[in-house]
Amino acid sequence: MAERRRVRTFEWSTAIIAAVSIIAGTIVYFRDGSDKFIAILSSDLWLFGGMLPKMAAGCLIAAFVTRLLPREVVARVVGGESGVLGILIAMVMGAVLPGGPLTIFPVAGAFLLLGADVGTAVAFITAWNLLGYNRALIWELPFFGPEFVGWRILIAVPLPIIAGLSARIVARAVASRWGGDQWT
Amino acid sequence: MDLMTIISVLVTVVLWGLVAALALTAAVRSKALFREGMQEGSRDFVVLIPRVLVGVIGSGYVAAVMPQETIGAWIGPNSGLLGIAIATLAGAATPGGAVVGFSVGAAALKGGAGAPQVIAYTTAWSLYTLQRLINWEIHMMAPRVVWLRAFVSLPLPLLAGICAMLLGKP
Question: Half-sphere exposure (CA, 13 Å, Cβ side) for B107?
Fold first, then answer.
């Protein structure tokens, strides 16, 4: 059974951004004149319009991946792996699996229950945060444009591996110093 | 056409190829699966447009009214490691949903911040979004896993910022 991702129609943070934008736009209009006001609007709309096809594709890919790749399957694939390979697979899954926190954290929790080590779960969540195509396509691209986002993601590729490996080291150090290695 | 435009068009083509492949796979399994996917994907897109649009346009105006000298001095292209550290702290402290972090980051970039500093900012904000940590993560994961993740994530925004600075990109 595919679970629904929830995209809420109203959000407080959007309302606050809208209020701040209207204030800033009014200041620009009266301080710098209507030419400046329109110049900013048209350059931002141009960037936004150019990203719309990618945003639409991102939404459709997310909707289909959610249905075709059940989270139980992801949990089983990653949960059974260990070592550096486990961290790499977790990273790929974190980047590929769409959806919000409601989807991601239960999957990460399931890895731990299925026997994966804590480094795997950390690599998975970090990859979802930094490499998720869903967020990059739908949110980041219209704000920053393809060149910035492309470099940002390229630079972020090693980070989930670093996070996963260091989580593993810290977890071992904690366990040997204070005992207890239960992470579920 | 410059190289970036060609890459951008290619990415769009690949993405829609992926959409077609996924839609076809869903359609082969069942018509209902295909219909649900198309409906949900389209609905999400329509709901997201105004939210992203508000942030994108707003960031342009906010950048225009922000004091460029001050931003440049704190997190400008010449602010170096200190600027990356300041941007990291600001990113970790920024509350709110997806639209907030990216709006602030885009406003800073348009208003004179350096690209490595903005990369450090968005990386820190993605890793630490407090609202998500408190509302979701801490309830759905064992607390010690959450703290461990937060601890090992500390150097990551700095690494990303330094890496961008060394590469001289974007």
Answer: 24
CA distance B135 to B113: 31
Identify whether the C-beta of residue A41 lies closer than 8 Å to the C-beta of residue A141.
no
Give the residue from A32, A68, A144 showing the smallest Cα distance to B61. Answer: A32
User: Rounded to whole angstroms, how far apart are CA atoms A157 and B167?
Assistant: 15
CA distances (Å), B161 to each of A155, B91, B100, in order? 9, 12, 20
ipTM of the complex: 0.88
Integer CA distances (angstroms), B132 to A160, B97, B138, in order: 19, 8, 9
Q: Please, are residues A66 and B24 in contact by the beta-carbon 8 Å criterion?
A: no
Half-sphere exposure of A12 (CA within 13 A, CB side): 3
pLDDT tens-digit series, residues B31-69: 999 999 999 999 989 988 988 899 999 999 999 998 888
Whether the predicted model's global pTM rises above the 0.95 cut: no
Q: What is the CA radius of gyration of chain A?
A: 21
Cβ under 8 Å to B: A residues 99-158: 101-102, 105-106, 108-109, 112, 118, 121-122, 125-126, 129-130, 135, 137-140, 142-144, 146-148, 150-152, 155-156
Which of A43, A121, A139 is facing B145, going by the closest CB pair?
A121
Q: Which residues in chain B are contacts of A27 at CB distance < 8 A?
A: 61, 65
Pairwise CA distance, residues A24 & A18, whole Å: 10
Does any CB of chain B come closer than 8 Å to the CB of residue A34?
no
